[in-house]
Amino acid sequence: AWYLVQRVLELANLHMRLCSAIVAVLEAEPSKSLLQQALSEALRDQLRDYYKVLAMLMAKTSDPTDTLAEQTSGPPELTLRRLWTWLRAPLEQMRLLGTLSEACVPLRGGALASFVHGCSRVGDALAQDTCTSILRRVVAPLLAMMRAWMTEGELQDPYGEFFVCADASVPLEELWMRMYSLDIEMVPSFMSLDLARKILLTGKSVNFIRLCCAGQEWLPPPEKMREGLAPRQQQP
Q1: Is the pTM here over 0.85, yes or no?
Q2: What is the 8-class DSSP label of residue 26?
């Protein structure tokens, strides 16, 4: 019985620490990392299944029908062992989320995405599914940075998390040779260096054309782009 009590208390402690870490990131002003914020939002959403289990257990203890059944049949509906049966899976999940949250505290950008990707490659099926779902949320800001860089030649990276970095002190005349470079530590582990260099070169080319070959509109308005991508209806 004491072992079961310790496990239930461990689950409560892990939940409290995880919630504190999530709140600390989401309520930080200003936020220091877009990927950290995306991670915290993903972790918060992962807690929904745990809350569903708690709601079900609370409903069992407060249901008058169950109370009447206990009086007539004898043994209580929710014993410590039955409670542990319901909470065993949430405890494993909470341990995984807590480990992920604590390990990612000092990480940013591609380094953070690399760690989450590594966790999604483990042998445990539950850990794989959970970390893969979290990884999709974490890389969303990174993909937005890549899109802005490759299509508009703009670095939309307020906290230095993208693997392409710029030196603002370099004059425009030396833009091609010196202004932009690759930050190897920020390249995600699921991306090859060759691909990262191609992304750097593509965005740098777009940036060069926009800054050094001014006078023409580079991209059409968004509504025109949507019209061009929309399927055309055949005339009857």
Answers
A1: no
A2: H
Q: At what angle do helices 64-73 and 48-62 cross, to 10 degrees?
A: 60
Cα–Cα dist 9/19, whole Å: 15
Q: Is 194 left (phi over 0), alpha (psi -120 to 50) or beta?
A: alpha
User: Residue 47 burial by CB count (10 A; 0-12/13-18/19+): exposed, middle or buried?
Assistant: middle
Q: How many residues does the chain have?
A: 236
102-154 pLDDT tens trace? 999 999 999 999 999 999 988 788 889 999 999 999 999 999 999 999 998 99
Q: Which residue in 85, 105, 104, 98 sits closest to 127, CA to CA?
A: 98
Pick from 168, 215, 162, 157: nearest CA to 191: 162
